[in-house]
Amino acid sequence: AVIIGIDKYNGRPMKGCVSDALSIQDYITEDLGVPQDHIHLLLDESATRANIVNTLCGLYNDSRILHGDIIIIYFAGLGSSYPDPRDQDICPDDAIEAICPIDRGNEVDGVLIPDISDREVNSILSAISSVKGHRITVLLDCCFIGSHFKG
């Protein structure tokens, strides 16, 4: 399992995301019997874009996960959405939605760290499911409110 909870966003702190993530961890260890060493827990500062993407991609090669095993991915934090630049419709309905890592918008070597788009998550999940099977549950405890409005 991968459990992510972020409260300490720069300029936009959240409340309850880390405690929700810890509650999910308790549930899957105590009620579902998942061993603690099978859980990747990324909270606040450890939930960088690189750590999130690398941890998710790491499921692909994790020898402890057999084909057909259940995989749980939980994210509690900020979500975002952006208009798809390829969509030229008057009423676009396929905005790009994204989960926001703790380091979103930080600059590294002159490049801003982006959010993790739904397209990127889909690519990662497709790769995982190709070798581990389709028993992947993704729980997103966030809001993509921007996708409901056109500015």
Give a quick set of tags describing it.
alpha/beta, Rossmann fold, 151 residues, globular, 4-stranded parallel beta sheet, 28% helix, single chain
What would you say this structure looks like, in words?
This protein is an alpha/beta fold and 151 residues long. It has one domain (2-146): Rossmann fold (3-Layer(aba) Sandwich). It has three helices and nine strands; from the N terminus they run βαβαββββββαβ. It has helices at residues 17-31, 49-61, 118-132; strands at residues 2-5, 40-43, 71-76, 79-82, 96-99, 107-108, 111-112, 116-117, 136-141. The chain has a four-stranded parallel β-sheet, sandwiched between helices. Strand 1, helix 1 (17-31) and strand 2 form a beta-alpha-beta unit. The termini are far apart. The relative contact order is 0.21. Mean pLDDT is 91; it is low at 147-151.
Estimate the strand proportion: 15-25%
Helical content stands at: 25-40%
State the domain count.
1
By helix and strand content, what is the structural category? alpha/beta
> Overall 3D geometry?
globular
Q: How many strands in all?
A: 9
Mean pLDDT: 91
SSE topology sketch:
Blueprint: E1 2-5, H1 17-31, E2 40-43, H2 49-61, E3 71-76, E4 79-82, E5 96-99, E6 107-108, E7 111-112, E8 116-117, H3 118-132, E9 136-141
Parallel strand pairs: 1-2, 1-3, 3-9
Antiparallel strand pairs: 4-5, 5-8, 6-7
GO molecular function: cysteine-type endopeptidase activity
Protein name: Peptidase C14 caspase domain-containing protein
Family: Belongs to the peptidase C14B family.
